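Table S2 (continued). Query chain:
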Amino acid sequence: MIPLAVPNLSGNEAAYLQDCVESTFVSTVGPYVTRFEQEVASAAGTRYAVATSSGTTALHMGLLAMGVGRDDVVILPSMTFIASANAISHCGASPWLMDVDQRSWTLCPQVLEAELFAKAERRHDGVFLKECGRQVKAILPVFNLGMAADMDALGSIAEEWALPLIVDAAAALGAEYKGKMSGACGAIASMYSFNGNKTVTAGGGGILATDDEALAKMVRHLSTTARASSDYDHDMVGYNHRMTNLQAAVGCAQMEQLPMFLQRKRQVRARYDSAFTEKGLKPFPRPQWTYSADWYSGFVYPFEDVTDFRNRLRKKGVDARPFWKPVHLQLPYQNAVRSEMPVCGQLWDRIVTLPCSTHISDSELEKVVNSVLEAL
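Corresponding output:
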């Protein structure tokens, strides 16, 4: 079986891990954590970065540091991994789910604007839902598949309504928006994930990247048990959400290969697009405003037997999979405030993701291509 996306551990991972063992810096303090934060901040285009135990905890800490709390509301596209919504829920808040733009599979500015005018009102102390009176605290775009959302349009709406933008850029390290790095496109902060299937992995972990020094300090404080001094003084209810030096060591080795990883991801995407587009299979979006990190590759299958089609590919040794089930269809969020969902509602179960590891061989790539053509 050619797997969907597995870590490429061909660099200095083992040497850096051995260094951690020999130095005894294996826990949440160590030079690799600092180095990893600095390198991700540089790749994101921000001044600061704070490492945490996962992408979800990074987003959770960022939302808390921005003041999101119990009974608040955060705007979120429904087409995202459920962890985005869970981070909001961990704050005691709820997601306001909205449809995505057909051009990018990211939060649709037109839907956002229409929903705000229809369901929200501006008061002297903020933005509130008309029906229930809950306060809307932030807008959380998701950079699906490593593609930046239309941040100029979203930023204009956010400014009009005085709502901060925080981005779930989990798989978008190395992506660009109109020539700017993914963390430098108008949001107060961006979250990156380093789960095992990401282009750069640390075996787990996340980072919140920002230019806001006060926000970075608060996220670091919250994620390190809100410890105020070395005498075990704690001034808030904090969280133990730190990244270990072991994880960061793997991350540093991965960051050394980021340009090569991105190049290979884009080569894989280009090969699939060239092979399948003429067969009536719709490629993943490529909006003109973003240079995608192309985390996953595949196509939209136009016929009814998509599950059978994926199974046919698996029998041929190709690990073809579906994409995320939208949040509005998930049991924990069935009562969430939402827009109509004509785009993601009809799209999500037609998506086929194909093997796209950064060390997939050319012969494996051709096997995938030929298997798809045969399965059609």
